[in-house]
TrEMBL record, chain A:
SMART domains: ETF (SM00893). Keywords: Electron transport, Transport. Residues 23-210 form the Electron transfer flavoprotein alpha/beta-subunit N-terminal domain. InterPro entries: ETF_a/b_N, ETF_b, ETF_beta_N, Rossmann-like_a/b/a_fold. The keyword NADP does not apply. It comes from Hymenobacter cellulosivorans. Pfam families: ETF. This is Electron transfer flavoprotein subunit beta. The lineage of its organism: Bacteria, Pseudomonadati, Bacteroidota, Cytophagia, Cytophagales. Belongs to the ETF beta-subunit/FixA family.
TrEMBL record, chain B:
Pfam families: ETF, ETF_alpha. This is Electron transfer flavoprotein subunit alpha/FixB family protein. Belongs to the ETF alpha-subunit/FixB family. Keywords: Electron transport, Transport. The keyword Ribonucleoprotein does not apply. Residues 3-192 form the Electron transfer flavoprotein alpha/beta-subunit N-terminal domain. Coiled coil: none annotated.
Length: 246, 325
């Protein structure tokens, strides 16, 4: 079975978000980039399923410029077999989905996995777009994924519960916890990752359908009003009379 | 040209987030000088759908096919696309829910539309293109997104738009069929498992949330969180380490890698306020923090705070609400 795992390169979760002076772009200066935390579930689960089947391949795919390669190598160190980088800055979700769909079609992948969303753009869109571009089902967000032959059984989160869904390959799933315990690279993995193939291809498709005009930070909080613990009940009066939320 | 609103129903009722979406859609329609039609998915009653008139909806399309009761991505996408064609909709509005985002992304490809998710404000119409504010960086920032396509799809974040209530106005309910075939139900769920929600309030839809962290010390103490939530009519939530060690189920975990919430009131009990936790909750309107450590970072993001022991403070709060009611 051929797995394609899509990873995005995002600012580390502890990053304080700032923008360039014209507010048009995220300020990358001094920021550490990591594999999108949700994509780690997709990557680890694909590797686990390949190992359980005893055959097959896991290919990682990233749409990004050369500066994303350290994280692609990290994915290879975790256990992917090879990698493809589409050499372009990811302009919007549609642009990225077009690249993924083109690669998925050409490589005839059986299972396409990615994270639920990226923690920077928070689009929650790419998986559905890829499914629609390829004309195959998408299961999003998936909390569990098991394979038996060409049939996958997934748990999909719904508000207030979950659904059990069965789909045949090929399909797309966007992953989230508690699908698996994301792996970290070990020394052997880091050594072998250096020799694994990383192919760079140029983008295709019609291009982006949206653009960001400007970024902004949320307004600053007024500051906290402290209530002594002894008179904790007074808080309830403030929530009713002052904040008017109860 | 018209505006199509996707309304999600559950157990016969229109979801709260869909009332917000309907209100959003009818305001966009007014801005464009047109009307807003809704298409309903899930299990609905005609009376509840007619009431969408209060949110400014003039007409509701409803397909009573029983297999549409549960979410089926293939079938929902086809149904909504057919409704959009019928109405000549240039703008489609849906909730930024698991259903809305899943269907919205497929629809955007099928209808060649520009899509914005996580939308928090009404759009500005720049003569053809829309500029709309959306949440980004897991609640740490906003982005103004430009949608240039002839067709636009907007997925509206919960609790970011006030629902309209024009008493007495009703919408006409029209039966509608998208001629769905068995193939459209290929991804239908085999089984639906609902989870216990404390007090019956769904976390993603909740107006008020009481949340506990590692400071609660163990699952045996959660009745303190549940009692306060029950008195307030709130949903319960937790920080990531709490769900990681199984004190609470995963669907209660809020934050950057959990559920993002934006209720009117978020009460954090024994939670430090790590940046990844704040990312998922800091767009709440009013934040209350209870922590025994006055240096806990959460106080910087709070509106009200109590420096104290949760085991002493929580029963006092629950008692005070009971006295008020
Ligand atoms: C990639 C990544 C993603 C993450 N995503 C998330 C996420 O989505 N959501 C999330 O929550 N975290 C997330 N985290 C974890 C986050 O960094 C913190 O570890 C976590 O939020 C801490 O949880 P906590 O505040 O419950 O526990 P702690 O940090 O242990 O804090 C407990 C707090 O309770 C207080 N306390 C203790 N006893 C009492 C008492 N008796 N009365 C009152 N107060 C008391 C303490 O003073 C302390 O402030 C993520 C981390 C990473 C690396």
């Amino acid at each position: 079975m051929k797995f394609l795992v899509c990873i995005s390169n995002v600012p580390d979760t502890t990053t304080k978000i700032t923008f360039t002076p014209d507010n048009k772009e995220f300020n990358k200066a001094g920021v550490q980039f990591v594999i999108n935390p949700w994509d780690e579930y997709a990557l680890t689960r694909a590797i686990e399923l390949k190992e359980a089947q005893g055959s097959g391949t896991v290919t990682v795919l990233n749409v990004g410029e050369a500066d994303t390669e350290p994280n692609i190598r990290k994915a290879l160190a975790i256990g992917a077999d090879d990698a493809i980088r589409v050499n372009a800055a990811p302009k919007d979700a549609y642009f990225v989905a077009e690249q993924i769909a083109a690669i998925a079609k050409e490589g005839a992948y059986d299972v396409i996995l990615m994270g639920k969303e990226s923690i920077d753009y928070n689009g929650f869109q790419v998986h559905g777009m890829v499914g629609e571009l390829l004309g195959i089902p998408t299961v999003a967000p998936a909390m569990k994924l098991d394979m038996s032959g060409n049939t996958a059984t997934l748990e999909r989160e719904i508000e207030g519960g979950k659904e059990i869904v069965e789909v045949a390959t090929p399909f797309v799933a966007s992953c989230q916890q508690p699908m698996c315990e994301p792996r970290i690279p070990n020394m052997r993995g880091i050594m072998t990752a250096r020799t694994k193939p990383l192919k760079v291809v140029e983008p295709t498709g019609e291009g982006a359908r949206t653009s960001v005009a400007e970024y902004a930070l949320p307004p600053k909080k007024q500051g906290v009003k402290l209530i002594p613990a002894e008179s904790a009940g007074d808080l309830i009066k403030l929530l009713r009379n002052e904040a008017k939320v109860i | 040209m018209s505006v199509l609103v996707v309304v999600e129903c559950d157990g016969g009722e229109v979801k709260k987030s869909s009332l917000e979406v309907a209100s959003y859609g009818s305001q966009v329609a007014q801005m464009l000088g047109t009307t807003a039609t809704a298409v309903a998915v899930g299990e609905a009653t005609e009376a509840n759908l007619a009431q969408l008139g209060e949110q400014g909806i003039s007409k509701v399309l409803y397909d009573a096919e029983p297999r549409l009761k549960d979410f089926v991505n293939g079938a929902y996408t086809k149904l909504i696309a057919a409704a959009a064609e019928k109405e000549g909709a240039q703008v489609i509005v849906l909730a930024n829910s698991n259903i809305g985002a899943a269907v919205g992304s497929r629809l955007s490809v099928r209808l060649k539309a520009s899509l914005a998710t996580n939308v928090v404000e009404l759009p500005k119409n720049d003569g053809g293109s829309f500029t709309v504010k959306r949440g980004a960086f897991s609640g740490k920032a906003f982005a103004d997104v430009v949608l240039t396509g002839d067709r636009k799809i907007l997925a509206v974040k919960k609790n970011s738009i006030e629902a309209l209530h024009e008493a007495g106005k009703t919408a006409t309910v029209e039966s509608f069929s998208a001629s769905l075939s068995d193939a459209d139900f290929a991804d239908a769920p085999k089984q639906v498992v609902m989870q216990d929600q404390a007090g019956g309030v769904l976390l993603p839809e909740a107006d008020r949330v009481v949340s506990g962290g590692r400071g609660m010390k163990g699952p045996e103490n959660w009745h303190l969180i549940e009692d306060l939530a029950k008195a307030l009519g709130a949903a319960t939530a937790c920080s990531k380490p709490v769900s990681d060690v199984d004190w609470r189920p995963h669907h209660e975990h809020v934050g950057q890698t959990g559920i993002t919430v934006s209720p009117n009131l978020y009460i954090a009990c024994g939670i430090s306020g790590a940046i990844q936790h704040l990312a998922g909750v800091n767009s709440s309107k009013v934040i209350v923090v209870i922590n025994k450590d006055p240096e806990a970072p959460f106080f910087k993001a709070a509106d009200y705070g109590i420096v104290g022991d949760v085991f002493e403070v929580l029963p006092k709060l629950t008692q005070a609400i009971k006295e008020l009611n």
